[in-house]
Amino acid sequence: MQSLIQRISDIKKEEMSATLLAFSFVFLLMASYYILRPVRDAMASDWTDSEISFLWTLNFFISVIAVFIYGWIISKIRFKHVVPGVYIFFGLSFVSLYLIEILGIEIQWINKFFYIWVSFFSMFHLSVFWSYMSDIFNKTQAKRLFAIIASGASAGALAGPLLPTFLASFLSSSQLTFIASILLFITFPIISKLDSLKESKLENKDQVGDKNIFHLKGNPIDGFKSFIANPYLLGIGAFILLYTMISTFIYFEQTEILRGYERAERTQILGSIDLLVNILTFAIAFFATGRIASKFGVGITLALLPFFVAFGIIILAFAPIITVLLALQVARRAGNYAITRPAREMLFTEVSQEERYKAKPVIDVVVYRGGDTVTAWFFTALTEGLGLVFSVIGIIGAFIALLWGLLGLKLGKSYEARNQ
Which of 182, 138, 188 minimizes the C-alpha distance to 21? Predict the structure, then answer.
């Protein structure tokens, strides 16, 4: 198996163990999230666009507060506890939600809290994971291995939807939530093993510190200050902001289409879409993305999806039917996970360790959710306020996607210049 993997990928022998462990790590994270995602999204079609926009606004403010708290905590505790502590915390939070339901405690707002909390988890758990990967692997290794590791996310996202897709009629939402929490706890021994391989096999001694005493110094606002003061980080933030604007437009249209279905049917439909997305994602990420990044550079890799989405949105503007919309959704999400996300994470190998763990959550969580919030209300104003049809909105979206692609090209040039 090791020989086969080496032939079809670009993994060196001494990197095999760490790469497979990282693959398994993100597999568990994404399997957990994709068990929760259809449950969360099935709730959304019970609410109006205004209610969803309000929840996204609340999610943004919760995200800002959470990133402040996270920045304070990691400046106080030993560094070796940061990454495992994040996943244990989320695992315990989902166990608590499970207990609330099985104990029959009726709280009117619990569904909306669940929606917000899963949305926050979806951003934060991957932000911390990729910060950790930028610590484990050096710049040269990242260019070859990040796409392969990201295919683990695709495999997990492929396995996760199987439960809600095929067993939504037999397992309750609380039972699915409990299963997702168990997967998070399993990541603990993987983190411990990766820490030892970082120095012994990967030979990244220059990135190793005494984790028993080292912690990230500073205060809770350092991440925000670093982000604002660094043009390179601002560019990454703008890239993510434009991505969220496109994603939000398509998400709201999807929500409108699914209003005519029962919640269990919605869960199964969304789970099926996730299944298709992640079959495609795994194949691209494992076999193609690393080679694309090595041959054409990070800039082209970052720009591929935005330009494709711009073209797809133009088609949707003139043929606003469910088949085209779902095809665009599958292509957008698969392209993001397989190509754009790994290339974007390569950019963070060029920043300091403190910026990875403090400024990166600001970009991945606060900027992302801020973009969600602004775009959600903008979309609501266009649909409920002005009554515009999606074809008109689609033209606006295509223009945003073009800007997104041009920024990707610029970020890639900046990254390559830093490596010269």
Answer: 188
**Amino acid at position 237, single letter:** G
DSSP class per residue in 68-115: HHHHHHHTTS-GGGHHHHHHHHHHHHHHHHHHHHHTT---TTHHHHHH
Q: What is the pLDDT of residues 23-46, one digit of tens each?
A: 999 999 999 998 888 778 777 767
Q: Residue with structure tokens 């073009």? A: 402
How confident is the model over 109-137, as pLDDT tens digits?
A: 777 888 888 888 887 888 889 888 888 88
pLDDT at 230 over 80: yes
Distances (CA, A) of 241 to 32, 235, 401: 25, 10, 11
Contact indicator for 150, 337 with CB cutoff of 8 Å: yes
Q: Which residues contact 54 (CB under 8 A, 6 or more apart)?
A: none
Opening angle at CA 360, ends 379 and 122, nearest 5: 55
- 85 contacts 185 by C-beta, under 8 angstroms: no
pTM, two decimal places: 0.72
Class of domain 12-197+220-418: mainly alpha
Residue 91 and residue 184 in contact, taking contact as beta carbons nearer than 8 Å? yes
AA identity, residue 407: L
Inform me whether the pLDDT recorded for 165 exceeds 80: no
What tens digit of pLDDT does each residue of 297-342 get? 888 889 998 999 888 888 877 776 667 777 888 888 888 878 888 8
Length, in residues, of the chain: 420
Angle, in degrees to the nearest 10, between helices 368-380 and 110-136:
140
Of the candidates 262, 326, 322, the residue with the CA atom closest to the CA atom of residue 45: 262
- What is the C-alpha separation between 302 and 277, in angstroms, rounded? 19
Tokens found for residue 204: 């990244």
Task: Give how far Cα 5 sits from Cα of 19, 44, 142, Å.
Answer: 11, 41, 17
Residue 194 CA to residue 57 CA, distance in Å, equals 37
Q: Which two tokens stand for residue 346?
A: 């390569």
Query: How many other CB atoms are found less than 10 A from the CB of residue 385?
Result: 11
Alpha-carbon distances, residue 182 vs 16, 28, 30, 125, 186 (angstroms): 26, 10, 13, 15, 7
CA distance 263 to 269: 10
Which stretches of 160-261 are DSSP H helices? Answer: 162-167, 173-185, 187-200, 222-229, 231-257
